[in-house]
Structure formats: structure tokens, C-alpha cells
Design goal:
The complex is a heterodimer of chains A (115) and B (112).
Chain A (H helix, E strand, L loop, with lengths): L4 E3 L2 E4 L5 E6 L6 E8 L3 E9 L2 E4 L8 E7 L2 E6 L8 E8 L9 E2 L3 E5 L1
Chain B lengths: L3 E2 L4 E5 L4 E7 L6 E7 L6 E7 L4 E4 L2 E6 L4 E6 L8 E9 L2 E6 L3 E6 L1
Classes of the chains: A mainly beta (115), B mainly beta (112).
């Protein structure tokens, strides 16, 4: 398996534009997580899905952020409109089984820069 | 609210010596703890874990210690190697809650 795949690896956009980040989890994994990494707060959990259903989105910072998982092999994180303070590295991770007890497998991340 | 805290943003150690990375947590419901390692331009990778029923778990050069009464855990690397230079994240979860909380990370530099 190729591991968790994220695209794009880098995204530079202007304030106000819509940004869509993509993730393909490891085949067979039933949990998918979106994280944001910043210098100040480290890795923050934004939202996670179980069997394509959003379970907890309490970490999503604002209504400008939305995430979907239309099927078991694809998820998107959308920011609309984007702002400079959204600049960060966004990671997708997946795992199988009880997420609390199993290691998560992370993708390489998407580095987002909003000018 | 940072439920998992890594108060040292960076640590520098000489090759061959011991590296000790610390982590504190506030949520007494946490009962499973993990350490992840992250190299630049890569995602974090799992390193070692410990359940709350134990106070120590060892895997080669890596040992994690858990002090539940103090809500503190630490990762010991001995002997440290230059290839261990990375950012280390502490994470915690509760088995009645399927998410995981991460600390802000500690950047370890092992000097040759």
C-alpha cells in the first residue's frame, strides 16, 4: 500500500480564495482524521470520520472550514474563504479499528500559504 | 484548551547521551499514550505507546515512562543518535473517545 496520500503537497493562494485539500486513506482503514499543525499549537485535531460519517468536528475552527468523505477512499477539507491565519500544514491520517488504541498513519501533509 | 502539553519546544543532546522528552496531560480520562516522530516535510510516524495499566514500555533504544498520579510521561532515547533528530509529538487518548490529542512537539537535535 502506498500509505496515506495527500494532494496538493503545497498550496499558495490569496486571501478570500477557496482552498480544497484532498486525502486518500489507506485501503481498509475505517477512521480518517484531519489535523492542522502550527508552531504555536502543534497538531490540532480538526475533524474525524468513522466509516465515512463525521463523528466529531468540534476542532473545526470556523464555519469557513468544511470536510467531506463521500466514500471510503477519499476525503476533502475545504476552506472558503481562506485567510492568512489559515496558513499551516494540514495532515490527514487514517487507522483501522478503535482509533483511541491504534496508531494513526499520517500522510505527508499539505503546506498551505494564504497571502 | 491544550490537554496535552510539551513544555520544551527544543532539546539538544550530544550523540551517545540520553535524550529525555517530557509530556504532561490534564485529562484524567486519558488511558493510552503514544509518541510520534516527525522528520521535515514528512508526516508523523508512530514510535512507541503505553497503556495506563503499565508504567514503562521499552522498545530497543526507546523507553516510555508513565506516572499517572503526576499525569506525566517521558520518552527516553539511549544512546541518542544523529538520526534521532526530529520533532517528537506526545499524544493521548481515552478508550471511550475515539480521538487523540497531541502536544505541540519537541524538536530534538542530536549533535555528532
Amino acid at each position: 500500500d502506498a500509505g496515506v496520500i495527500q494532494s496538493p503537497r503545497h498550496e499558495v493562494t490569496e486571501m478570500g480564495q477557496e482552498v480544497t485539500l484532498r486525502c486518500k486513506p489507506i485501503s481498509g482503514h475505517d477512521y480518517l482524521f484531519w489535523y492542522r499543525q502550527t508552531m504555536m499549537r502543534g497538531l490540532e485535531l480538526l475533524i474525524y470520520f468513522n466509516n465515512n460519517v463525521p463523528i466529531d468536528d468540534s476542532g473545526m475552527p470556523e464555519d469557513r472550514f468544511s470536510a467531506k468523505m463521500p466514500n471510503a477512499s477519499f476525503s476533502t477539507l475545504k476552506i472558503q474563504p481562506s485567510e492568512p491565519r489559515d496558513s499551516a500544514v494540514y495532515f490527514c491520517a487514517s487507522t483501522q479499528g478503535l482509533a483511541a488504541l491504534n496508531e494513526q498513519f499520517f500522510g505527508p501533509g499539505t503546506r498551505l500559504t494564504v497571502l | 484548551d491544550q490537554q496535552v502539553k510539551q513544555n520544551s519546544p527544543s532539546l539538544s543532546v550530544q550523540e551517545g547521551r540520553i535524550s529525555i522528552l517530557n509530556c504532561d496531560y490534564t485529562n484524567s480520562m486519558f488511558d493510552y499514550f503514544l509518541w510520534y516522530k516527525k522528520y521535515p516535510a514528512e508526516g508523523p510516524t508512530f514510535l512507541i505507546s503505553i497503556s495506563s495499566i503499565k508504567d514503562k514500555n521499552e522498545d530497543g533504544r526507546f523507553t516510555v515512562f508513565l506516572n499517572k498520579s503526576a499525569k506525566h510521561l517521558s520518552l527516553h532515547i539511549v544512546p541518542s543518535q544523529p538520526g534521532d533528530s526530529a520533532v517528537y509529538f506526545c499524544a493521548a487518548s481515552a478508550d471511550n473517545n475515539n480521538d487523540m490529542r497531541f502536544g505541540a512537539g519537541t524538536r530534538l537535535t542530536v549533535k555528532p
